[in-house]
Amino acid sequence: MSVATDDRVPELDGSPLFLLDELPGAEELLVDGAEGRHAVDVLRMTPGEWVRVGDGRGTVVEGEVVAAGSEGLRVRVSVRHEVPPPALELVLVQALPKGERGPLAVELATELGVDRIVPWAAARCVTRWREDRAAKGVAKWRSAARAASKQSRRPRVPEVTDVMTTRQVCGALADVDVALVLHERARHPLATVALPSTGTVAVVVGPEGGLADGEVVALRSVGAQPVRLGPEVLRTSTAGAAALAALSVRTRWS
Question: Right CATH number for 4-82 from 1.10.720.60, 1.10.8.420, 2.40.240.20, 2.30.30.240?
């Protein structure tokens, strides 16, 4: 049996998506480990059901479950897709929230289409990632992004970078096409900002204590525009998701 290839973006039909670190090119593959246990023990997948399996980097195969048991799911591959990245990349620079609000911000941003997430150690962050805590924090955010990608059936898991300082964030923003800073005192609403059809748009979200004046000056010095979402002041863990939804309405959800 030959496997058909298709470069179209696969339509969502309710089939679950499982992610493997590497996607073999064989006509049959095994979804094992934690993914396989989740498929068999939690989702109760059985032979005959249709599933998707991806590598999180744009390659997705579709096929029929031919066996489900202690080793996981064995899937006969029928179609292979190569899903290109979006023409307009969406980046979220997220100041470190308290506790579990960090993974929540990542989860919401992933479901709403973010392509890259930058953890930011802003001046007024209550949470501080030092030494080993930084590595653990980033790993937790990456795990949240992967889980949310499966839930929302995204073929590409967003990148979560290492934590950055304000100086590093400013350096990264200098290379994007449009940089927006959410600020409750900004004059211009995000809805009126001119957006490109290709390139990179970044949204900067400050911490619970707000942006320090020096941070606003530094961000503006590299071309970032202060914007507001509306009259309400949102939590840092939800403001990024709201901004991404507003951007997606204008650039992707049509």
Answer: 2.40.240.20
